[in-house]
Amino acid sequence: MKRHLLSAADLSRTDAELVLETAAEMLALADRPIKKLPALRGRTVVNLFFEDSTRTRISFEAAAKRLSADVINFAAKGSSISKGESLKDTALTLEAMGADAVVIRHGASGAPHRLAHSGWVHSSVVNAGDGTHEHPTQALLDAFTMWRHLGNLDGRRVAIVGDVLHSRVARSNALLLQTLGAEVTLVSPPTLVPVGVEAWGVETSYDLDAVLPKADVVMMLRVQRERMQGGFFPTPREYSRRYGLDARRMATLQDHTIVMHPGPMVRGMEITADVADSDRSVIVEQVTNGVAVRMAVLYLLLSSDSQEDTSL
Ligand code: CP
């Protein structure tokens, strides 16, 4: 296996299917009385989080611990970053402590790539979300969740709905789901479509009601108001009316269609509480699957004999 996981674009179909199959084995451990494996005993995983996170940070920690690795959690808040320390010096400090894998979330797009190719660290680097760029393990856990509900994803229609402009989840999902044979449609207001989206190879639409009845999966995205400068257009009320998933819209879905959200979600904005808590919603399952998928990623990266400086 290769050394880093930086982008969903680096995953071939064979790579991605290996992660999903390994994740299925990891998930089966949850039914055993003893959920831990000794696979990464003596290895050290550092969670390096420069941006806030609930699901990703906790699930990487749980994943590493279930594989018996030692885990060091680093959060920018409360660290020497506030005194002006650079990414390089933070990385050299981790290297001095013997990290085998660094899981990094950073507000700057490309920060994990910089770390992986800098020569500052010799560990595997896993992108846990960089700016508005990518979140490959989220895409893997989303694909795993779809795969468990729908089987093979060839020809399956996935609608990704909302603030695509600021969403690293949308980009990683669009890349990975197409690798796995799915057809992706991005649905968003014209003001929240990224420049150059044509290069993603997906369909785009402004009309949620036209897309929903054909979808096998509906993935709702949060509006990332914290990344918007100069206000938010359309207004929250108008956004919910045109792009929110509520009970009326849910009734137009096919019987087998599942509703997903990567979290964190804002109930009442992009999704109503009754839809988020409905039988169609697999949002909590996504979180459970996230641990299994991240176990698979850490296991495949760290148990490999390959030392080549390439990405997974
Ligand atoms: N989906 C996701 O990345 O959630 P967190 O920001 O809570 O990690």
TrEMBL record:
Residues 155-301 form the Aspartate/ornithine carbamoyltransferase Asp/Orn-binding domain. GO terms for biological process: 'de novo' pyrimidine nucleobase biosynthetic process; 'de novo' UMP biosynthetic process; amino acid metabolic process. Keywords: Pyrimidine biosynthesis, Transferase. Transmembrane segments: none annotated. It is an enzyme of class 2 (transferase). Residues 3-147 form the Aspartate/ornithine carbamoyltransferase carbamoyl-P binding domain. Pfam families: OTCace, OTCace_N. Carbamoyl phosphate binds at residues 55-56, 105, 135, 138, 263-264. SUPFAM superfamilies: Aspartate/ornithine carbamoyltransferase. It catalyses: carbamoyl phosphate + L-aspartate = N-carbamoyl-L-aspartate + phosphate + H(+). Belongs to the aspartate/ornithine carbamoyltransferase superfamily. ATCase family. NCBIfam families: asp_carb_tr, PRK00856.1. PANTHER family: ASPARTATE CARBAMOYLTRANSFERASE (PTHR45753:SF6), ORNITHINE CARBAMOYLTRANSFERASE, MITOCHONDRIAL (PTHR45753). This is Aspartate carbamoyltransferase. It comes from Nocardioides euryhalodurans.
